[in-house]
Amino acid sequence: MSNSLTRRHEINQFIKEMVEMNAESWVKRIGRRSMLKWAGLAAIAPVVAACQPSAESQATATAVGRDLNAARQEILRLSYNTASGGGTNVKMMPDPKTGQPTVPLEEIFSFDRNYAFCLVYTNPQAFKMGEVVIDANKFYMYMITNTIDQYELTTLADGSRQVIMRGGLSCKTEVEQATVTIGSRTIAEHATYKVTAIDKGVGGGNAGDSFAFTAFFDEKDAPINYGIFGAEATFTGKMTQGEITILDPKKP
C-alpha cells in the first residue's frame, strides 16, 4: 500500500473512532501529542500532492485533504463539549418562624456546552422568601437556556477547572398562595443568566464540585419573576448528588 493510501486509511480510522467516542473519552485518549500528529498531517497534504504526479495519486491526495478537513471539523466540534454535569443542589431556605436558613430546598440541574437547566419541582416544607411564606408543595421553578452567547473555560490557581456561560433563558415560576396563584408552569418569561460550574475532581460535591445558576430579571421582560425574586436570583447550594466534569483543552 502506498504511503498516501496508508495515510488516508489512518485518517479514516481516526474519524471513525472520534464519531464513536464522546468528547471526554476522546480528549483523554488522544492527548496533546496525538492532536499534534493529526495537525501535522494537514501540513504534509500539499507535499503528498506535489510528489505524486499521476492522476490516481493526485486524486488520492485530494481525498486525503478532504478527510483531513473532516477530521479538523470533528476536532473542533468535540472540543466544544469539554464540560458537562448534572446532579442535585440543596439550598437552605429561611424557616417561616425563626427566619434561620434551616429548610432544605432541592434544585436539580444539568448542563453541557449546548444547554443548561435548573429545576425546583416542589418544596416539601414551608419556607420564607423575603416577607412571603411559601407553604409546603406550593413552589415550582424551571429555567432553561435559549442561547449560549459566552462560554469561558479556565483552569484556576488550585488546579480545578471552571466554566462560565452567559446568554438568554426562559423561566417558568409558579407560587400558590391561599387565594391566588402567581405565575405559571407553562408560560415562560425571558431573562439573562450566568452559569458557573466548577470541577474539583472525581467525587462530586464531596470533592468540591459546584454549580450556580444566576438569573437576571428585567421588570418589563419578566414581571412575574421580578416580583418573586427581584432583579437577581442565584440557584445553588451544597451538591449532594451528581458529578461535574470539565476538561481544559489547553492543559495536558
Task: Describe this structure as you would to a colleague.
The protein has 252 residues and is an alpha+beta fold. 32% of the residues lie in helices and 39% in strands. The protein contains four helices and 13 strands. Strands 1, 2, 3, 6, 7, 8, 9, 10, 11, 12 and 13 form an eleven-stranded antiparallel beta sheet that branches. Strands 4-5 form a two-stranded antiparallel ribbon. A hairpin with a 2-residue loop joins strand 2 and strand 3 (115-120). Helix 2 (23-51) packs antiparallel against helix 3. It is elongated. The two termini are 34 Å apart. The relative contact order is 0.13.
Summarize the structure.
With 252 residues, this protein is α+β, with helices and mostly antiparallel strands. The protein has helices spanning 3-20, 23-51, 55-80, 223-229, and strands at 83-94, 101-112, 115-120, 127-129, 132-134, 139-145, 150-155, 161-176, 181-183, 189-199, 210-216, 232-235, 238-246. The chain is built from four helices and 13 strands.
Q: What topology does this entry show?
A:
Layout: H1 3-20, H2 23-51, H3 55-80, E1 83-94, E2 101-112, E3 115-120, E4 127-129, E5 132-134, E6 139-145, E7 150-155, E8 161-176, E9 181-183, E10 189-199, E11 210-216, H4 223-229, E12 232-235, E13 238-246
Antiparallel strand pairs: 1-2, 1-13, 2-3, 3-6, 4-5, 6-8, 7-8, 8-9, 8-10, 10-11, 11-12
Helix pairs in contact: 1-2, 1-3, 2-3
Instruction: Tell me, briefly, the overall form.
Output: elongated
Q: How many β-strands, per DSSP?
A: 13
Provide the gyration radius in Å. Answer: 25 Å
The structure class reads alpha+beta
By DSSP (H or I, 4+ residues per run), the number of helices equals: 4
Low-confidence stretches: 21-45
Q: What order do the SSEs take from the amino end to the carboxyl end, as H and E?
A: HHHEEEEEEEEEEEHEE
